[in-house]
Give the backbone structure.
Amino acid sequence: MRSKRLYSGLMALVVAAAAGCIPDVPPEALTLQPESASLRRMQTRRFDTTNEGELLQASLGVLQDLGFELDEAESNLGLLVASKQRDATDALQITGKILAGALGGAQVPVDVTQRIRVSLITRVISASESTVRITFQRTVWNDLGQVSRYDTLDDPELYQEFFFKLSKAVFLEAHGI
Amino acid sequence: MVARSLTLVLSLLLAACATVDPRLLDTEQSQVQLRSIQSRAFDTTDKEQTLRAVIATLQDLAFVVDKADLKLGTVSATKLDGYLLRMTVSVRPRGQGEMLVRANAQFNDYPVTDPKPYQSFFIALERAMFLSAHAVD
């Protein structure tokens, strides 16, 4: 009787531990954050046109200038999805790997390649204006073929440069929102 | 004769073992329960505006859109923030004057079955739609 109770107690522990292994979605992942508004401002510009097709064409031109390949497009919803694969080797990381090797240390993985993806969405917001919003994200792989980093790029200069090029391409001034 | 019956017994045994891995079809949870966690109805008939609101919400939540199709009424998107969160949202008319929005998410290698993340997503979508969401059975 006693051993049976012990056994069921142990089983409950094992089940609880196994259930604990399933990772929970971080609560902030699908919740609007205080910084969502500033992110939106950084990623969005307003243009004095309601011609979505023209905005999409000009945006595609800028993405091509920046070396992106088009993956998907749905002009009925004002969407472009593009990506590019680039070298991600970093001199500092490689020096670290060589040093660790020389000291007889463990295998230190170094980043080798990265994929940068963007989605760009146009939207008519009034009788005379549209917005363009772009988001950049990146996945980095190391020399063991593992993903070493997943992130959304939030350097304001990246977005400023993109919109500077886009406003030249559409011959329209890009306004903040 | 003995060999034949042995083969029959063996193949029956093997067939009994070959059950489908439950992870392939995610059959652990009640499909009806999951569908109601993942779905909401909105009082609108405008599919395009609903899809555009879904896209805007996903962008506000720092997703990059992977695909969208107006005719099919779908959007899928990925969020990378030290983890990988994928989401597919479908939109279709329901009854008279409603659009049914269903979202399903995958977190790294696991399906998201907890109601909380979906509740958060629909709260954010309500704001973008300027409409309140109704629970569906």
About this structure: Strands of chain A lie at 44-47, 69-74, 79-87, 111-124, 130-142, 147-152. The mean pLDDT of chain A is 87. The domain at 46-170 of chain A is CATH 3.30.310 (TATA-Binding Protein).
